[in-house]
Amino acid sequence: MHWTLVIPLKPLALAKSRLSQAADDAVRPALALAFAQDTVAAALACAQVRDVAVVTDDVLAGRELSALGARIVPDAPAAGLNAALTHGARTVRSARPGSAVAALNADLPALRPRELARVLTDAAAFPRAFLADAAGVGTTLLSAAPGHALLPAFGPDSRARHRASGAVELDLDAVDSVRQDVDTGDDLRAALALGVGPHTARQAARLLRQ
Ligand SMILES: Nc1nc2c(ncn2[C@@H]2O[C@H](COP(=O)(O)OP(=O)(O)OP(=O)(O)O)[C@@H](O)[C@H]2O)c(=O)[nH]1
Ligand SMILES: C=C(OP(=O)(O)O)C(=O)O
C-alpha cells in the first residue's frame, strides 16, 4: 500500500512555544521550519509514501516545503490541529478518493525513512491505526486505510483518545525516530542523540553557539 501523508504545521512564529526556554523568539521559528523540513524530506524518501501534503498557512514554510516536493494545502478551517488534518485528508481524497492517508506530526527531526516504512507497513493491516509518541501519552502518526475516515483526535492525551476511538495502537520496537517528537529542550536533546536531519543539525549548531 502506498500512502499520502498529511502533515500539519502551525505558522512558524507561533510554533513550538514549549521550546521557549531552550530557544528564544529569534531562533524558534527557524528551528520549527528545520524540524518540518527534515520531517518532510525523510517522509518523501520513504518507499511506502506516494506523496506528502502539508497543511499550513505559513508562507515561508509553504515555499520551502514545496521546494522539497510537498503539496501545500492552505489551513482553510483555521480551527486548530484536528480541523486542519480533517481538511487535509478530505482535500487529498477529493483528488484521489481511494487514498490511504496518514497524519504525521511536523516535529520529527530524527525521522528515518526505513522506520517510517515499517510503521506504514504494519498500519496497512488495519482500518485505522496509530503510533504513540516517545513520551507515551501523545501520538505521532494516525493512519486511515482507503474507505475509512481519519477521525483525528490529536492534542493532550491523544494516545488514550485514539485508542478509545477504535484505532489500533501499533506495537513496534525500533521505530524511535517516528516516535520522537520535539516539544521541549529534553525532547530536542533526545532527537539529537538519535541523529537529526541536516536542517535541524544546522539550526541546533546555531543554538549552541548562542
Ligand atoms: N495546520 C495546523 N497545524 C497545527 C495546528 N496546531 C498544531 N499544528 C501542528 O500539529 C503538530 C503537533 O502540534 P504540537 O506538537 O503541539 O506543536 P506546536 O503546536 O508547534 O507546539 P506548542 O506551541 O509547544 O504547543 C505540529 O506539527 C504543529 O505544527 C493548527 O492549528 N493548524
Ligand atoms: C498534538 C500532539 O502532540 P504534542 O503532544 O506534541 O502536542 C499529540 O500528541 O497528539
UniProtKB/TrEMBL annotation:
Protein name: Phosphoenolpyruvate guanylyltransferase
Keyword Magnesium recorded: no
Family assignment from sequence similarity: Belongs to the CofC family.
GO-annotated molecular function: phospholactate guanylyltransferase activity
Function of the molecule: Guanylyltransferase that catalyzes the activation of phosphoenolpyruvate (PEP) as enolpyruvoyl-2-diphospho-5'-guanosine, via the condensation of PEP with GTP. It is involved in the biosynthesis of coenzyme F420, a hydride carrier cofactor.
Gene3D superfamilies the record matches: Spore Coat Polysaccharide Biosynthesis Protein SpsA, Chain A
Entry keyword set: GTP-binding, Nucleotide-binding, Nucleotidyltransferase, Transferase
N-terminal signal peptide: none
